[in-house]
UniProtKB/TrEMBL annotation:
Top-level taxon of origin: Bacteria
GO CC aspect terms: cytosol
Pfam families noted in UniProt: HTH_38 (PF13936)
Domain Transposase IS30-like HTH: 2-43
Protein name: Transposase IS30-like HTH domain-containing protein
Gene Ontology biological-process annotations: transposition
PANTHER family the UniProt entry points to: TRANSPOSASE (PTHR10948), TRANSPOSASE INSI FOR INSERTION SEQUENCE ELEMENT IS30A-RELATED (PTHR10948:SF23)
GO molecular function annotations of the record: transposase activity
Organism: Candidatus Buchananbacteria bacterium RIFCSPLOWO2_02_FULL_46_11b
Positions in coiled-coil regions: none
Amino acid sequence: MQRLTFFERQVIESGLRAGKSIRLIARCWGRDHRVIQREVDRNQVSGRPYSAILAQRLTNQREKRRHKRKLEKFKYQPLRQYVIEQLKEDLSPEQIAGVTKLQPPIELSGQTISHESVYQYVY
């Protein structure tokens, strides 16, 4: 799936300002009309016309949030420390994930982690 570029967002903005329909804008750029509609719905601030600059800014913010890894979000927190200690004890990511689910230490207070998150942290 190819993401919309800033240039395409500018085209959408100018098309909408000119009164063109979503379907016409999509047809001109070889995109499905649902892609354009989703873009407008997702990035249009209520009561204001669609803005390519604002849409790009919102997209960039979502992209940043999406790439936060669980252990990096909990930097210097008990879960992160626990995982580091368990890795030093030569436990596998699967074992660490299993222990946090089945027999969590008191200091974790119900926090769990998947083996995928442990692998992401290691690599």
